[in-house]
Write a structure and sequence with these properties.
heterodimer; A: alpha+beta; conserved putative lor/sdh protein from methanococcus maripaludis s2 fold; 5-stranded mixed beta sheet; 9 strands; B: mainly alpha; MetI-like fold; globular
Chain lengths: ~210, ~270
């Protein structure tokens, strides 16, 4: 009898989790995808010096430049968009002068290539991202904030993610338990988890989940 | 002293059998530093644990979940349909009197003893001609008529009380009535045993989906885990744990019936 009770619990929890992940896995995944703001590398007019026998003259030259925020320790994250989604790739760059918030790119990326100028999470090569059209408060905090602000924000994000996943799981388990109480007959056990998950899905839908 | 050695021997056997399962479960929670496709474990027992394998498998790569539900669908549908086909077949082999019955049963057993690889090509050609390749039917239809369940049920039915069936024949001439009212209630432990065998068999199938199916969306979990490429050690082991759970639960539910069924079938 104890074995069957254990089997009951394992089956309920397992099937509930599998159903929750099946229906909400993508939503949970989206929670962890970094949201980024991208800017294209542009041809800009930069101040330059021309050395002649008469002396050094100040002039202008057109160079490929990216916003200062995109450069980090000699590399940028380039944005690659396709039908499958948006991904970032790690690109090493050689930089030149800085002018008015833009950095000259001597080598590494071409003009019109989009680079990441702000992200609300840590990026790495090949990571999927969601591209936002404008800077949000979260991205501004993460990109421009101080080390303490960034740390506090990262903690807040993680807490929020864990809370969301836990709430989803809690509803799922509650749904499964309710179904188990409603359907006591052994033969009906097989049908209980989907019902349980239906309850949990309904609860999640009405719980204001983002 | 003899008792001690016997127990020690049994304990050793138990450890040897359980070690791969325990290592699979432990390493599915382990932090793996190795690159995808390099299938080796850094140490026998992991030092650090996390849920990355499960996260990557269940949240990041949702394909595996559909493969899991495909496995559930295939195993359940095939098992139920196979039992529905096997019960009347077994009743005929056991109770009906007709010419060449013994010869037919002999060929049935020969078919059962044949390795799967022998029938794969004829099945493939048949499915291709019926334009069923790359559809769930290519997995379900050949398996529904597998002879193993009919053989087990025939063995069990041979052991049923003849007098009981003869008494029923005095009451009615309807075979359906006798089958449903007299035979089926007595078959319950055997059907449960067959259900477990058949479910486990279909749950573990690898060759058929790998050959008959191309689209990833129709493949079962067993096929997904046998693929080479794109998965890390943690993901494969996490998938293996998920793959194990339904069979373990099924055994926990029905192990009493399985033992009774096997005993009554004299297996």
């Amino acid at each position: 009898m104890k074995t069957k009770k254990a089997a009951d619990i394992i089956l309920y929890v397992f099937l509930t989790f599998m159903l929750v992940f099946t229906f909400f896995g993508k939503d949970l995944y989206r929670l962890t995808i970094p949201k980024v703001v991208a800017e294209s590398a542009k041809r800009k007019s930069f101040p330059a010096e021309v050395e002649t026998p008469e002396g050094i003259f100040q002039t202008k030259k057109v160079v490929i430049a990216v916003p200062e925020e995109a450069i980090s320790d000699g590399f940028v994250y380039a944005l690659n968009e396709s039908e499958q989604g948006a991904y970032v790739t790690y690109e090493e760059v050689e930089t030149g002068k800085t002018d008015d918030g833009w950095v000259e790119i001597l080598k590494g990326i071409g003009a019109r290539k989009k680079v990441i100028v702000g992200s609300d999470r840590v990026l790495y090569d090949g990571r999927e991202v969601i591209v936002l059209t404008e800077q949000t408060e979260q991205i501004r905090l993460y990109t421009e904030g101080t080390a303490e602000e960034k740390e506090a924000f990262a903690k807040k994000c993680k807490k929020h993610n864990i809370q969301t996943v836990l709430i989803a799981m809690l509803f799922a388990v509650a749904g499964a338990v309710t179904a188990r109480l409603l359907l006591r007959k052994r033969l009906r056990i097989l049908f209980a988890p989907p019902d349980g998950s239906a309850v949990s899905i309904a609860l999640l839908l009405f719980s204001g989940r983002d | 002293m003899g008792n001690f050695f016997r127990k020690a021997g049994l304990l050793l056997c138990a450890v040897l059998f359980l070690l791969p399962v325990v290592l699979t479960v432990l390493h599915s929670f382990a932090v793996q530093k190795v690159e995808p496709d390099l299938f080796y474990l850094e140490s026998l027992f992991p030092k650090k644990f996390d849920l990355t394998g499960y996260y990557d498998l269940l949240v990041e790569d949702s394909q595996v979940l559909w493969n899991f539900w495909n496995s559930v669908l295939y195993a359940l549908v095939i098992t139920v349909l196979n039992i529905l086909v096997s019960v009347p077949a077994a009743y005929s082999f056991s109770q009906a009197k007709f010419r060449w019955k013994e010869a037919l049963f002999f060929f049935y057993i020969v078919l059962m003893m044949m390795p799967l690889q022998v029938t794969l090509l004829p099945n493939y050609i048949g499915l291709r001609d019926m334009k069923l390749l790359d559809t769930p039917y290519s997995i379900i239809l050949p398996a529904v008529f597998a002879p193993f369940s009919a053989f087990l049920l025939t063995q069990y039915m041979n052991g049923l009380e003849k007098s009981c069936l003869e008494a029923a024949l005095l009451e009615t001439k309807s075979v359906t009535t006798i089958l449903t009212r007299i035979v089926l209630p007595q078959l319950r432990p055997c059907i449960l045993a067959v259900f477990i065998f058949e479910f486990a068999e279909q749950w573990n199938m690898v060759e058929q989906p790998n050959i008959y199916l191309k689209a990833e969306k129709w493949k079962p979990l067993s096929s997904f885990l046998s693929m080479d490429g794109g998965l890390t050690v943690s993901e494969v082991l996490a998938g293996s744990v998920i793959f194990m759970i339904p069979i373990v639960v099924l055994y926990l539910y029905f192990h009493d019936s399985l033992e009774v069924g096997l005993e009554s079938m004299k297996l």
